[in-house]
Amino acid sequence: LKAAIWGLMMGADPKSASTLYPQLQQTLAEAKEDINAKPRALLIEGINAFYTPPAYGGGTEKARTLLEEALNHYQAPSTDAQVAWGEVETYIWLGQVLEQEQQTDKARSAYKQALALDPNCTWASQKLNALNNNSAP
Q: For the whole model, what pTM was predicted?
């Protein structure tokens, strides 16, 4: 959660990146050491990579890789009842990355996966509807 907040703060004030980015990286590294927190840390890293230009170590390819890795960890057995927190959001972010990469069918599939996990997810439903409406003949 701290890492996500620091990411938002850097987005609002890019000058703060020089002090917040190292803290964000350290927090994510620590979170990835905890098997139950790892998928959420990878989700946050994926979101950050999505908004970071490739010249600065981000981009859609890196974001996709991180989000797919997060999804792999969500599938692994866990003793933590809360480990699935963020799985729906990970599919939605993956869908957005895939849309950016013009992989419409895969993006559609990601949004459908999110809805399979949470049929009442408005965000996934809106993204899927927008994608379907934009790709209609």
A: 0.79
Which residues lie below 8 Å from residue 67, measured CB to CB, with a gap of 6+?
42, 43, 46, 90, 93, 94, 97
Q: Which two tokens stand for residue 108?
A: 């559609």
pLDDT digits (tens, 9 = 90+) for 67-106: 999 999 888 765 555 556 789 999 999 999 999 999 999 9
Residues in contact with 59: Cβ distance below 8 Å, sequence separation at least 6, in sequence order: 49, 52, 53
C-alpha 4: how far from chain center: 11
Length of the chain, please?
A: 137
CA distances in angstroms from 86 to 7, 53, 68, 77, 102, listed in the order given: 17, 24, 13, 16, 24
Q: Which of 97, 94, 90, 107 is nearest to 40 (CA)?
A: 90
| Other Cβ atoms within 10 Å of 30 Cβ, number | 13
Would you give the DSSP letter of residue 47?
A: H
d(CA 68, CA 43): 9
